[in-house]
Amino acid sequence: MLKTLYIENIAVIEKTSIDFESGLNVLTGETGAGKSIVIDSINAIMGQRTSKDIIRTGAQSAFVSAIFENLNPSACAALEEAGYPPEDGELVVQRSLSLSGKSSCKINGRPATVSTLRGLSAHLINIHGQHESYELFSPDTHLGYIDSYGGTNELKNSYLEKYREYKILKKKLNEANSDESARLREIDLLQFQSTELFDADVQIGEEEELEAERASLMNFEKIFSLLNKAKLMLDGEDADGGAEAVDMAATAMQNAAAYNSEYEEIADNLTDIYYNLRDCTEAISDAIDNLESDPRRLEEIEERLDLFGRLTRKYNCPADELPALAEQMQTRLEELLNYDKNRSELIEACENAEKEALSLAKELSEKRKNAASVFAAAVRDEMRFLNMPNVELVPKFETTELSSEGIDKAELLISANPGETPRPVAKIASGGELSRMMLAIKTVLAATDDVDTLIFDEVDTGISGSAAEKVGLKLKEVSKDSQVLCVTHQAQIAALADHHYLIEKRVEQGRTFTVVNGLDREARVRELARIIGGVNITQAALSHAEDMINNASEM
User: In degrees rounded to 5, what are phi and psi of residue 432?
Assistant: First the structure.
């Protein structure tokens, strides 16, 4: 669950640290106080796209960190797979933002990418905001809910693997069925290009060897002069070369060692140097003997390197990759020349892949339909509890062509009042009904979702009175199995909180600051009274707030 959230220089929040607990955590505050900033900060930690405009005015950078503890098995497995094993069941996630637009992420102190953060967050937090309710207007999301409830992930992954195989084969078959003249043109081109490359017979490493040999031939005079100079320094004339001088020094030190043994090591070292110098002299002599000036060979090398240059420019690849390119061309040429045989094999493979994909799609469809009926009934019951007593939900399936979703197009049709024919959500549901429907869906899916923290951002939009109280009761119920964070404007919901946080905006020295503080019982009563009665808190409002908290504690 989310244990600690630290925010620095995000919008009007300069610095704040919030310690969350298990159960139902409620955040309240006046409109514009900065409740959405807390959610934006959590979104940043989840790897969501974040604009530099969120950085506090006057600051160069912003920073958010979150500490998670008691991680669920799927989160631990995801962390292990991503290369960030949890430490003592705890996870620390950090994200920095700068005015330059760059951001950096860390997981347990180690650098990470935003995409990695986004992938891991799916196992940690599930956020439901106001905009998510409107996703119910799109039938595409309904199938996802049914899949989540029905536990079809393993079967769907098997189908997707076979479907992708079918699509690849289908694409190859379409290419094979393309215009005959285009095939013949490609054959003609490949025959010319592969012949050109095979005739060139470029060897891996040959270019580098030729360039070294060319450098040697082009600098023959310089090399010869330098080798001779080195040999002369070692051999000298009339036995006065460097090697002979070292030999004489070694002899002298050996004679001195006869009188004092401490000179033996120096004498031995000089003797070793002498023999090394003699070896060098012989090696230089061999190099001089092997050195040759061959203008014809230099011309051959220039022509060969010129050929390499033309081929690398023409085929846009280094010389060492030309042999592999020639092999690829030959393979493609053989495919085109064996068109009829390959096409027959491709047709058979494509048909088999399509049959297997269709079989898995039908199995997936059957499982979805079975799950959809149970899911719709469960969501309907939750919605009826949330003051929609006459609601009906009917899953509607249509069979489609094979796609990444199988052969199903699914939609949950809703009827909010008796006698009404179930129709698409977008044509019937109000804002308040959408919020309750989404809460009902989240409640039903909570039993199959192993995410530990659920966040509801103003899920009470468009409702009030007894409906708000029942939404609160449902959130309270969900919080028994998962940590729940809820941003709300409703006193009925706030009264049910296990932990209540107030988000306040203050102005100091002409700057706006937002702070987040946990409330004790007395402060909770005052905040509930503010929500009930507005700015001017009356004794009646305080009494009502006290009663609401007392009643909630007895539930």
Answer: -65, -40
Proportion of the chain in helix, strand, coil states, percent, rounded to 5 = 60, 20, 25
CATH code, 1-124+452-519 = 3.40.50.300
Coil, strand, or helix at residue 13?
A: strand
- Mean pLDDT of all residues in 24-41: 84
Q: Is pLDDT above 60 for 511? A: yes
Pairing of strands 125-128, 453-457: parallel
Rounded CA-CA distance 242/235 in Å is 6
Confirm if 408 and 155 have CB atoms less than 8 A apart. Answer: no
- Tokens 């159960």 correspond to 23
Q: Give the integer Cα–Cα distance in Å for 320 and 546.
A: 82
Query: Worst-scoring range by mean pLDDT, 24-28, 177-181, 212-216, 317-321?
Result: 177-181
Helix (H, G, I), strand (E, B) or coil at 443: helix
pTM, rounded to two decimals: 0.63
Looking at the chain, the domain(s) classified CATH 3.40.50.300 span: 1-124+452-519
Residues 447 and 465: beta-carbon distance below 8 Å: no
Query: Are 477 and 439 contacting, i.e. CB atoms less than 8 angstroms apart?
Result: no
DSSP state of 239: S
Residue with tokens 């390959």: 342
Distances (CA, A) of 366 to 146, 156, 184, 272, 444: 12, 12, 47, 87, 21
Report whether pLDDT(238) > 60.
no
Residue 463 bridge partners (DSSP) = none
Element (H, E) at 320: none
Pairing of strands 24-28, 483-487: parallel
